[in-house]
Amino acid sequence: MIPTVEILSTGDELLTGQVVDTNSTWLMDRLWDLGLMVRRKTLVGDDRGDLQAALREATARADVVVMSGGMGPTEDDLTAECVAAVLGVPLERHEPSLEAIRRRFQHFGRPMTPNNEKQALFPRGAAVIPNRFGTAPGFSVQLGRARLYCLPGVPVEYKGLCDEAVLPALAAGLESVPAGRVVKLFGLGESAVDHAMRPLMDAPENQGVRFGYRAHWPEVHVKWTVGGEDATARADRLLGEVRALFGDAVWGEGKDELPRVVVERLLSRGERVTTAESCTGGLVAELLTSVPGSSGAFDMGVVAYSYEAKSALVGVPAELIAAHGAVSEPVARALAEGSRARAGATWGVGITGIAGPGGGTPEKPVGTVHLALAGPGGTAHVARLYRGDRDRVRRSTAFEALFLLLRAMR
Amino acid sequence: MIPTVEILSTGDELLTGQVVDTNSTWLMDRLWDLGLMVRRKTLVGDDRGDLQAALREATARADVVVMSGGMGPTEDDLTAECVAAVLGVPLERHEPSLEAIRRRFQHFGRPMTPNNEKQALFPRGAAVIPNRFGTAPGFSVQLGRARLYCLPGVPVEYKGLCDEAVLPALAAGLESVPAGRVVKLFGLGESAVDHAMRPLMDAPENQGVRFGYRAHWPEVHVKWTVGGEDATARADRLLGEVRALFGDAVWGEGKDELPRVVVERLLSRGERVTTAESCTGGLVAELLTSVPGSSGAFDMGVVAYSYEAKSALVGVPAELIAAHGAVSEPVARALAEGSRARAGATWGVGITGIAGPGGGTPEKPVGTVHLALAGPGGTAHVARLYRGDRDRVRRSTAFEALFLLLRAMR
Questions:
Q1: Best residue of B23, B27, B40 to probe chain A, by most A CBs closer than 10 Å
Q2: In this predicted model, what pLDDT tens digit does every residue of A135-154 receive, in sequence order?
């Protein structure tokens, strides 16, 4: 039997737009890996009546309820109290938790206030979930038809306790955990991906496979989970089929991130890249250097925004700019080749374009971008017309540059 | 009477971790400006039973329910059908909407499929909300005790229809719309801000003022709304008091964004900045050039990651690096001054540091950063030890650099 799961979060800050509840998105993703989909998610404020009503409703519908928030030391933190009230049991002090909280305060040299003792109070009969990531322990109880898990809302604590206690308990209750795979694509729209995937999704041998997408723009991820005895083999067979289906558009799997894949490829080949960016304004360099250890593959880059900077920093001839305009194939090539020569790098990326909202002309509208990649075998060039606002044009361009570089290193 | 508001969203993609529901956070923020707080938010999947139950429950509790999703052309889009079922009325075709959808498809030169006709079907008696941002119109009906608004889930359409139809209708029903103000701070933790704000928040003359924070890291925003007759005057008086309270830590108000404030200040003074970045890897340049029109204030920057790049691109003497190490005050100063001289800019930003996770030593642990700002009056320097991961160290550093520059242009 596949359990029904609901998520319940409490906290005024979640209802005033102060905080985006990213915890639940993260948990939904993890549950998907177990073959579970959340049936309903509810957010309520720090109000006894609302919280007790939501607890009663969720635990009457679901087999598992994962609740977060309201576990702090303040008057607004009502979770343990409300769970106890709905259960009809008193709160009881849990001495090991109180001791752990005391030690934590000692360790950080902060005074423990009487408030913090509240974080060691749990409904009678609750199973305490120790928290080595923060102060507030979690707990679980049987309530209504559901196993109810109550966790602190601080993301590092929430995720830590989910990983250590909630997800293993859920997985242990399943007859089998499905095998999940993710393939990451670039340069295709979600509808094109969906269209291409249809025959695989409708194939009789893939009955019972759960497919999904995540438009992690400018990437698209295709994912699926397979249950049953030969789950791993079936999931891996699909991996081969999906890779074959999308060919060159595939750049990664699983937890891969494009900047990291590019940097690791460079490092494994003992090669370096340099950048000369105009419209992306340093975004390509920023993405590359976001990867730990990138200094082995990247040692310099320039942002050449003006005509003068393109000439002064990369040696683009002023006549070239005058003849073709700054946003042109020859200038992109000169940026790539000039920066590569200057840095003595294996690869040189040159980018020039019109990110908008101003600067467009009928011949070169906003979104016009020229990318060039200079390398050992010569210089490749692509022209693009991206849609969207300034941020979207810049991000599309930067990821396209990384993708071009990765393709060139096959 | 202040109405009770609930949010209801539908869509399997919201329950599988594929999509973060940012629409509701946005709406909560807007409602806060009207003095309204959302009482409950519910997410359900594309399931008739779940959706009808959630509709019945929310419209029995609240005065206003804002629902999103399920308005597309596919079989999974169930909103109009489920609202009609709960109301006990049939769906009816709305000819003006069908005509508008047809025109939209003609305009974009795409064929209209029979599916799309579904988007012109509404529960009998519904008030249609035209959608000039996309295909699917919204609608509103009276259901239970609530006015129910049903909107498409695509963010640009959702926000557009909220701004054009939902929020004005809500505001019109209020006796008075409170005056809201936001002050934006840098360099202070949320708890320090809360501590400093306490006397203002507890002052008798501020009774009835609703205060809130948003930790928009590495910034903190303080906001408040005031109702009643002299709302604007009271909100503005508080603006003066909060500004006085935090002094130099205040960099903006309302919708201000730090990179934009910095670029606008530069443009208004006719000045330019250049950057020489090591550990931030181009992030400062990227933030500056994210602002439309920044080319008037920024024309070049370099990312000098290696020792050699620092010397070759900015002229940092190799002996200086050998004597003090690359992460040091003298090298930060040389980066700032060298880049300023080279670019002929008014301001030069120099950044060197250890973003981690590797590269730390007992003397210079991960998070050690030296920032320098060279300007007409000399060169300022700050040393910092930031906590957190690589991304956090880099973002803290980049925003600190922008903040330093802004402070220098008072």
A1: B40
A2: 889 999 999 999 999 999 98
* pLDDT greater than 90 at residue A312: yes
Burial (CB < 10 A; 0-12, 13-18, 19+), residue A89, is: middle
Q: Which of B17, B213, B309 sits opposite A18 (nearest CB)?
A: B213
What 3-state class would DSSP assign to B38?
A: strand
Nearest to B303 among A301, A305, A357 (CB): A301
Decide which of B255 and A167 is more confident: A167
State the nearest Cα–Cα gap between B123 and chain A, in angstroms.
Answer: 25
Instruction: Using CA coordinates, name the residue in chain A closest to B307.
Output: A299
> Would you state the pLDDT for residue B2?
84
CA distance B284 to B369: 14
CB neighbourhood size of A241 (10 A): 16
How many Å apart are CA B403 and CA B160, to the nearest integer?
33
The ranges assigned to domains in chain A are 5-172, 179-253, 258-408
Domain range A179-253, its CATH number among 3.30.2130.10, 1.10.10.60, 3.40.630.10, 3.30.70.2860: 3.30.70.2860
Q: pLDDT tens-digit profile of A213-263?
A: 777 778 888 989 898 888 899 999 999 999 999 999 999 998 899 999 999
Two tokens, residue A326? 């700054």
| Residue A17 CB coordination number (10 Å) | 21
pLDDT, tens digit (0-9, with 9 covering 90-100), for B293-344:
999 999 999 999 999 999 999 999 999 999 999 999 999 999 999 999 999 9
Distance between CA atoms of A110 and A124, rounded to whole angstroms? 30
CA distances from A143 to A66, A126, A341 (A): 12, 10, 69
A16 contact B CB<8A: yes
Q: What value does the mean pLDDT of chain A take?
A: 93
Query: Could you tell me which residues come within 8 angstroms of residue B242 by beta carbon, excluding any fewer than 6 positions away?
Result: B183, B197, B200, B222, B250
| CATH code linked to domain B258-408 | 3.90.950.20
- A positions 124-153 inside 8 Å of B (CB): none
CATH numeric code, B5-172: 3.40.980.10
Q: B28 contacts in A (CB within 8 Å)?
A: 15-17
Question: Is pLDDT above 80 for A190?
Answer: no
B300 CA: distance to closest CA in chain A (Å): 5
A 342-371 residues inside an 8 A Cβ radius of B: 342-343, 356-358
Find, in chain A, the residue whose alpha carbon is nearest to that of B291.
Answer: A390
pLDDT of res. B55 = 98
Cα B386 vs. chain centroid, distance in angstroms?
23
Average pLDDT score over residue span B220-234:
89
**What ipTM, to 2 d.p.?**
0.84
E strand or H helix at A57 = helix A48-61
What is the residue whose two structure tokens read 């003849």? A323
